[in-house]
Amino acid sequence: MKVKTILVSQPKPESERSPYFDLAEKYKLKIDFRSFIHVEGVPAQEFRKQKVGILEHTAVIFTSRNAVDHFFRMAEEMRVNVPENMKYFCISESTAYYLQKYVIYRKRKIFHGKQRFADLIKVMKKHRNEKFLLPCSDILKKEIPEILEKENYLFNKAVFYKTVCSDLSDLEDVKYDMLVFFSPAGIESLFKNFPHFKQDTTKIAVFGPTTTKAVKEKGLRVDVEAPTKNAPSMTMAIEYYIKEANKRKR
């Protein structure tokens, strides 16, 4: 069966230059976007139970824009004035620039890595005497605290926000040739919304080994997998699959 309709379990890209739009135009596809999961902030009352004081730290590690948003939201809710000498260590340059939403960028001590946490650690080595706070969600990559512990950094992690399943009930009667997933949480949301989901001829595309594992644990078939040597991005993997499918149909 040829792939003509695709549902991507993420928000619609803001940029018109997204490769998804190029893919849709090139192969005459209908590509829809829908977040299967979303983020909700932890209330201040619940946060206090973790017994982690924001002002007990001299530096903050941000691994995403969500972490930035909910760190400053929590500070406001708890009426905490974040000192001007607080240092910020961001996973990427774009996350660092996002801080401008909350602080005067030039007056703050802001550092960033290239994209991977291993790169950020290299930047942090010059600031070993800091006491770091890691604002995170209830779903955190295990490698992040493991690296911090291995490198003997003084840090506390605290849950500032949670990843929850979105309501997808309006999609119950909508069928797609391919579903695209990027996290185990997306798979969890699929089955929470549709507990009797049957794959049948629906193709499933997944990004990353943990997502692949989650799909297989549910007894589903993985048809498209990324990243690979030949397809480092999801759109490249989907295009490769479509090309091969079209060849078989000739």
Key words describing this protein structure:
250 residues, alpha/beta, Rossmann fold, six-stranded mixed beta sheet, five-stranded parallel beta sheet, 11 strands, 34% helix, 22% strand
Indicate the CATH topology of one domain: Rossmann fold
Shape: elongated
What is the radius of gyration computed over CA atoms, rounded to a whole number of angstroms?
A: 21 Å
Order of helices and strands: EHEEHEHEHEHEHEEHEHEH
The side-by-side strand order for the widest beta sheet comes to: 3-8-7-4-5-6
Count of separate DSSP helical elements: 9
Distance between the termini: 12 Å
Q: Approximately how much beta-strand content do the residues carry?
A: 15-25%
User: What is the average of the pLDDT values?
Assistant: 93
Walk me through this protein's architecture:
It is built from nine helices and eleven strands. 26% of the residues are buried. The longest helix has 16 residues, at 234-249. Helix content is 34%, strand content 22%. The chain starts with a strand and ends with a helix. By secondary structure, it is α/β, with parallel strands linked by helices. It has a domain at 40-163: Rossmann fold (3-Layer(aba) Sandwich), CATH 3.40.50. It is elongated. The mean pLDDT is 93. Strands 3-8-7-4-5-6 form a six-stranded mixed beta sheet, sandwiched between helices. β5 (87-90), α4 and β6 (109-112) form a beta-alpha-beta unit. The chain has helices at 19-27, 44-48, 65-77, 93-98, 117-124, 143-150, 184-193, 209-217, 234-249, and strands spanning 5-8, 30-33, 37-41, 59-62, 87-90, 109-112, 132-137, 155-165, 178-181, 203-207, 224-226.
